[in-house]
Design a protein that fits this description.
Blueprint: H1 2-28, H2 33-38, H3 48-61, H4 64-75, E1 79-81, H5 86-89, H6 95-122, E2 124-125, E3 128-129, H7 131-152, E4 155-156, E5 172-173, H8 175-194, H9 213-231, H10 236-246, E6 259-261, H11 276-283, E7 289-291, H12 293-301, H13 307-310, E8 311-312, H14 328-331, E9 341-342, H15 344-347, E10 353-356, H16 358-370, H17 378-391, H18 398-403, H19 413-427, H20 432-442, H21 474-489
Antiparallel strand pairs: 1-7, 2-3, 4-5, 6-10, 8-9
Amino acid sequence: MKNTIKNKKRNVLKGIIVLFIILLIIPSCNERFEEMNKNPNALTEVPDDFLFASLVRNVARDRLERWQQDFGAQYAHQAISNSWQKSIDQYLDSHQQGDIAEELFKGAYGNVIKYANEIVVMNSQEGNINEVRIAMAKTMAIVTFAKLTDYFGDVPYFEAGMGKYEILLPKYDKQELIYADMVEQLEAFRTIIVNADPEDGFSSQDPLYYNDLEKWERFINSLRLRLAMRARFADPGKYNAIIADCLTKPLIEDNSQNAKLEHWESDRGELYNPWYNLKIEYQSGTYQYNVSKKLVDWLVANNDPRLEALVKPNPDGDYVGMPNGLTDAALSFYVRSNISVPGDLMLNRDQPIDIMTASEIWFLRAEAALFNLGGEDANELYQNGIKQAMARWEVDASEYITSSPLATLRGSDEEKFRQISEQMWVAFIPNHVEAWSNMRRTGYPVIERRTDPMLSKGVTDGYLPKRLIYPYTVEKSLNGDNMQEAIDRMGGVDKIDTQVWWDVRD
């Protein structure tokens, strides 16, 4: 079995390299298109299995710096960027942020949604219908659609990524409708996967689960649970029933089932963990990403054994975080080299990128049990979440479980909910996108309104931003009418303190 898994991983690695070469060669052949069209052996389209491998990689890696470092980490108060990106941490709403939003749109629609649509079309032809591959491709698209709508609110969904098929100005759909369709689609995909023949999957080019359909079922159902839990406060009548249904079906339970993109000890940037680039910067004396005081103080105060794994001490051997939101004047008092950076384990070249982990699902199950949405014991589920979260970083949770007051749910239901939510906040690292979304959904950990004159209030009067502004340039100029319709639905002004549909708790 181990040899089989190794062979599958080796095949995926070979496929990634082949695809990389193909994508390099094709643009250089533009001048020979006429000749190629006459050559029966010329490459006319990339096979769908290679497209799928690229799709999975793009879901996990594409614009990672923008999604995770610039916005997710700073709004989640887990890290702080340097240079002009600090304006995001200062709650400012600038033209540069609109340009970053443009990058997120381009990457999501051009490198994920478009690829997924191509796979769907290729597997929907008469005589060549493959529902399994369609389900797997569209599931990965939903991961990115969820990030997009959680970041921006209403976004193109039903007509998205169809420019090749002459839908050039896709309408912006309501987030409420996007969520309803995503959870419905995921259940349909799970049913397809359960009854599938593995030969119909991506047997040689599946870098997520190496065509293990049992793990795919767990992932799809877990993703559905994540979305239903995120929407439950906005529409409990609809989503509580979906949550209960998810809890009756297989879910991700341990880290061997995590949805993750693996990397290798390689010198090639497309094969190693992109977070490794931060380690290169630190070694050269550049500090683009320091750990937040909020996170360091939480880990230290709670004697959390993940501290050494998640945070690297400064040159004096101390764990020191930087406050989020410092004004330009206040920043001058800090020397970035004296502030802690992420631990080496997170930055290793062979470290995988997680899309979804077991700890998140155990914590969601604990929350569901706490609020009587599932019949299990909330505290046991909560402790399972802690164990998996620590094991993810090679930390033994045994002593923490038996000795830490935080390892047992205590107090009122609201206090227990806060415990679960704060543990989830730490467990998401370095998936800061999901950490920020879960903070907005739950209200925990609490990010106080900024009143200290050393901290920037930005354009939100000191309150944590609730969304991103839409792209300023290309999207606005080309699809401005549809964008404006979405802005009008959200109050008529494109602001970062406008709550998205599911953010109703505060």
